[in-house]
């Protein structure tokens, strides 16, 4: 059977057949289409450019939103976010063996802010043992808040604590 003919049990005999128009083996009244089944229309470059333009617009909007959100981060040389956070304690819990840093956040900026603080826990010889984070939402201007950052790895020795990053975002 030629590849252009359907297998037995395929389309009805009264349906179109794909093949050569002059094959001489078709029942009377049967239609034969040369060139195979109808092709889908190609979408062309207009769709490609339209999709690329839409994607570019989304990227621009995301960048604008991020710039606006980070515009109020308080990255002021006179009042850096790192100056708002101090470590009040640095211990290892005897039961869980997780390191913990007590933190005090004092919002020196003029707006209520959300703080994200990252703390690094090191062995006395300087080897990094773990890392932890704290998040304080809506700390009012001038307000002091106490919180803690707990490490994610168990340790068996004393640790030193160091604030490695402070993000302050105006609420």
Structure report:
It is elongated, with a radius of gyration of 35 Å. The chain has a six-stranded antiparallel β-sheet with strand order 3-4-7-6-5-8, with no helix packed on it. Strands 1-2 form a two-stranded parallel ribbon. The chain is 16% helix and 36% strand. The mean pLDDT is 79. With 171 residues, it is of the alpha+beta class.
Our estimate of the beta-strand percent is 35-45%
Main beta sheet, described? 6 strands, antiparallel
The best one-word shape is: elongated
Please compute the radius of gyration using only Cα atoms: 35 Å
Structural class comes to alpha+beta
Mean pLDDT: 79
What's the arrangement of strands in the largest beta sheet?
Answer: 3-4-7-6-5-8
Fraction of residues in helix: 10-25%
- So how many helices? 1
Can you write the helix and strand succession as a string? EEHEEEEEE
Number of strands: 8
Uncertain spans: none
**Termini separation:** 74 Å
Please outline the helices and strands.
Layout: E1 17-18, E2 32-33, H1 44-70, E3 85-92, E4 99-106, E5 113-122, E6 128-139, E7 144-151, E8 160-170
Parallel strand pairs: 1-2
Antiparallel strand pairs: 3-4, 4-7, 5-6, 5-8, 6-7
Core attributes:
two-stranded parallel sheet; 171 residues; 8 strands; 1 helix; elongated
Question: Care to give the gist of this entry?
Answer:
Helices cover 16% and strands 36% of the residues. It has one helix at 44-70, and strands at residues 17-18, 32-33, 85-92, 99-106, 113-122, 128-139, 144-151, 160-170.
């Amino acid at each position: 059977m030629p590849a252009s003919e359907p297998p037995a049990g395929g389309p009805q005999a009264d349906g179109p057949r794909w093949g050569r128009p002059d094959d001489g083996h078709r029942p009377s009244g049967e239609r034969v289409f040369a060139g195979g089944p109808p092709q889908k229309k190609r979408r062309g470059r207009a769709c490609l450019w339209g999709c690329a333009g839409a994607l570019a617009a989304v990227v621009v909007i995301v960048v604008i939103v991020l710039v606006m959100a980070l515009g109020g981060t308080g990255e002021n040389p006179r009042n850096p976010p790192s100056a708002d956070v101090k470590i009040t304690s640095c211990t290892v819990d005897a039961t869980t063996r997780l390191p913990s840093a007590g933190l005090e956040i004092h919002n020196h900026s003029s707006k209520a802010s959300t703080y994200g603080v990252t703390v690094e826990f090191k062995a006395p010889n300087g080897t990094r043992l773990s890392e932890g984070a704290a998040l304080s939402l809506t700390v009012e201007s001038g307000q002091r808040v106490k919180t803690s950052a707990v490490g994610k790895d168990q340790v068996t020795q004393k640790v030193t604590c160091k604030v490695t990053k402070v993000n302050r975002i105006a609420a």
